[in-house]
Amino acid sequence: MRVAPDPAPFEAxxxxxRQMLAHLKGLAELxxxxxxxxxxxxxxxxxxxxxxxxxxxxxEHHAQEEKNVFAPLLAGGDPxxxxxxxxLQQDHGWIEENWIELSPQLSAIASGNHWPDTAEFQxxxxxFVELCTEHIELEDTVVYPESRAQWARAAAxxxxxxxxxxx
Length: 167
Description:
With 167 residues, this protein is an all-alpha fold. The protein has helices at 7-37, 41-55, 57-75, 79-110, 118-166. The chain is elongated, with a radius of gyration of 20 Å. The model is unreliable at 1-5 (pLDDT under 50).
């Protein structure tokens, strides 16, 4: 059985979720601002920061989850948990697909271009924000707690084995 990660990576994963939620809120606000007033220098700067975050750190975060959280849980053999993790893995694919469509629009806005269709942009933002928010909620309420518990059980078993070897 693979051992779940130590608590330090969970601190980083939790911090990334907080950053994602803040950027998702900013993305929703940006979409409203683009619809109401168009693109100005502030919108451009915000679009660039959001695009950079989700193209970099968020993708790395998903890769770390797949390796350090999902894989050990899948190895555990719990059918309900396996179904939840598989659903989250599918979400990662949907999130990536949505991002591939949304990212160029944000890049264009960041560059001051006005070609993105406002209605299409609004829809893309809405889908992306809802998908990511629901995904994070499921991870935070089901998967991360179980992964932490799995890690704690594995750490306790290691401690017992080490103690038994010393005596």
